[in-house]
Specification:
The complex is a heterodimer of chains A (about 110) and B (about 110). Chain A is an all-beta fold and about 110 residues long. Chain A has no helices and eleven strands. Classes of the chains: A mainly beta (about 110), B mainly beta (about 110).
Amino acid sequence: KAGVTQTPRYLIKTRGQQVTLSCSPISGHRSVSWYQQTPGQGLQFLFEYFSETQRNKGNFPGRFSGRQFSNSRSEMNVSTLELGDSALYLCASSLRSSFSYEQYFGPGTRLTVT
Amino acid sequence: DQQVKQNSPSLSVQEGRISILNCDYTNSMFDYFLWYKKYPAEGPTFLISISSIKDKNEDGRFTVFLNKSAKHLSLHIVPSQPGDSAVYFCAASGRNNNDMRFGAGTRLTVKP
């Protein structure tokens, strides 16, 4: 079974621009969660989508948004990029919309904002 | 706010010995805890979990202990192997299952 894939793997943007990251979950998984990893902060939960609906949301500003398509693929968008948005963005898929279920992570997209 | 804390950024252990990774949490509403392992250039992979109704869960060389009164959990790896060298994250979710909080991670190095 193919794992979680994320594209692109690396991205360089300038302040003020916007960016869209993509995540394809494991086949059959309907839940996709997004996380931001920065040095010293660990992984911080952004939001979770299940069956095309945002089910849960972390404490991030509205510049961070996402969506999920009918095939469970998900995109995350960050508008008006700031230097502090430089991070590794990870998505994870799961069978169900519950953090009691094991999540499978993709390799991440490394975003650098200059 | 850091509701899940891993106070040791790094740990070095000799091959064959026990590795003990620690994690503290502040939110008493957390009731499910997980450990993930992360190699460079890869996403985290699930290792082991424990529900708050238990105080111990074992899977091969990996055992997680939960002390609810102290709001503390630990991961024991016995015996440690060089392939265990990675960053280990503990994570916690609450009864509503609407959020997942991760610690900052502990880098484990197992020396041959």
